[in-house]
Request: fold
Amino acid sequence: MEISLQQDNEKAVLELIRSGRLPHTIILEGGEKDERDSAALLLAAGAVCREANPPCLSCNPCRKVLDGIHPDVFRPEPSKNLKSGILSLKDLRDSYLSQMSVRPNEADCKVYLFSDADKLLREDSQNALLKTIEEPPQSLYFIFTVQSAKSLLLTVRSRAHVMTLHREDIRDEDTEATAAQLIDGIVSLYEYDLLHTLYTLSDKARLEETLCVFTEKLRQALSFYSGVMTDDPSVKKLTRKLDRRRVIALIEITNEAVNRLKTNVDIQLLTTWLSSQYRRITWQK
Ligand SMILES: [Zn+2]
Reply:
């Protein structure tokens, strides 16, 4: 696998490895999934590489980690008899826990890399790992990757070093572009344009980010009515189409949507509702 990490994240991971005190249990949270997986591989390579500045990524052990064939780096997979992406407690015990005290094959240590650990390990499995995590032998390392460390048991979290990866800056540009698309959808004659943009936002965090950027643009539109000029083409588009009263109504309904997002709302129902509200505000007499 290719290592693809944003520069500041890579720097933080390398610093942790080269500090010479690599924690035995690490939780990698934040960032995108491929970034978390890349960081986890980098940590695993760092643990088994014997070169001066580990991981060198070119020695034999490093290459094996990247190719997924290092005999001391384990990536537990979901149990085959379960559909849900879960590693059963029995499989965890039989295939991994029972082997942990066995000496490493080639390296000085063994690394267990639990990808999407919150989905992979139910509470019973996390509890089963606790004892080993509490007093890890020198030769064992555990890496858990999750969107948020909070999705793991507190008892696991409190014994781990939590490393938070930063999101890519590109994402902000992305959100900016989506917010502009949302405005295109709102001023469009066709409801489909608006619905289409909202339906691409099926992830709660993405939707919330986009709505926040959208609200900023609405506020800029309000400032425009008060005489403050704007360079933002999407804000200009709004002000050409909508008057002050409608922009205020859009801000209010968007705030309400953001509040609903914080509850356990169905995101499809929310975006459908939001689309109809935006249409009503834009087109009512
Ligand atoms: Zn190496």
